[in-house]
């Protein structure tokens, strides 16, 4: 048996510039961090019945890869030699469709597991690129590159994409005290709403295919914020970073009508009124997890009052390991 752990991520600036509809024209720059919330995958051979046994939110028992209903597992297994005789189980620590990059992390975790079972060596960047290719090309999804790279590589980094889609990974240089300060000042809360990101990203891609309009102007702003967010974090200027989060959220809502709604806007405005400098929904929007920056002097009041609207805080820390094999037997 082999067990793999693939981290999920939070987006700290420039989210959306990792989409092909944007970077193929303008390049991209985003800040992303993997965190200690994971998708776990276990794999083992089935030597007796030679079945394909898959367990996720459902269970599938198949005789051949072509019978698999789970599209991501099917796409991954098609690339390897496991046509029969394999068992895979997956468990996620957060709900799916909640904005933390679970679909990309799932692919990275599955590929890492299959590589380990087949004894195939692959760099982390090649792993991320293969996961991107499967999601965008094989599965035809409106996905970018952030989720796969953050899960494969780990840590807190600046990712720069050129118009050919080549990604340069630049780890941010922060000491341990600065990292702890970020962890203690960024608050995560589940909105209670899960949603598929595909309709939002598809609408966003359509809006960005032109070179004018509010969505394009908003994305230029977000790309600039991505650059400035990295600079603020490296300078340990978290108050500036918090304000950039606010500007990011305002720009993000201009891209698609599905990113927010009156109830989500009410939650955000309330969070700002009780001490958050800025925040945003992580991922495409429409639901999932809120992330708020709250200065230290406002945190006690913020925690006490935000619980009154039914939001439950999710403790978190950075993950610097990336997708890893954590057990073999």
SSE pattern, N- to C-terminal: EHEEEHEHHHEEHEHHHHEEHE
- Assign the CATH architecture of the largest domain: 2-Layer Sandwich
Helix content: 40-55%
Rg from alpha-carbon coordinates: 20 Å
Spatial gap, N to C terminus: 5 Å
- Tell me the number of structural domains: 2
Form type: globular
Number of helices: 11
* Low-pLDDT segments, ≥5 res: none
Record keyword descriptors for this entry.
single chain; 329 residues; alpha+beta; Ribosomal Protein S5, domain 2; Alpha-Beta Plaits; 2 domains; 8-stranded mixed β-sheet; 3-stranded antiparallel β-sheet; 40% helix
Describe what you observe in this structure.
This protein is of the alpha+beta class. Helices cover 40% and strands 23% of the residues. It contains eleven helices and eleven strands. It has helices at residues 20-26, 71-78, 102-118, 124-138, 146-153, 176-185, 198-208, 214-234, 238-252, 262-273, 299-306, and strands at residues 2-13, 28-45, 52-55, 59-62, 86-92, 156-161, 167-171, 186-190, 278-281, 289-293, 324-328. The strands form two sheets. Strands 1, 2, 3, 4, 5, 6, 7 and 11 form an eight-stranded mixed β-sheet that branches. It has a three-stranded antiparallel β-sheet with strand order 8-10-9. The relative contact order is 0.19.
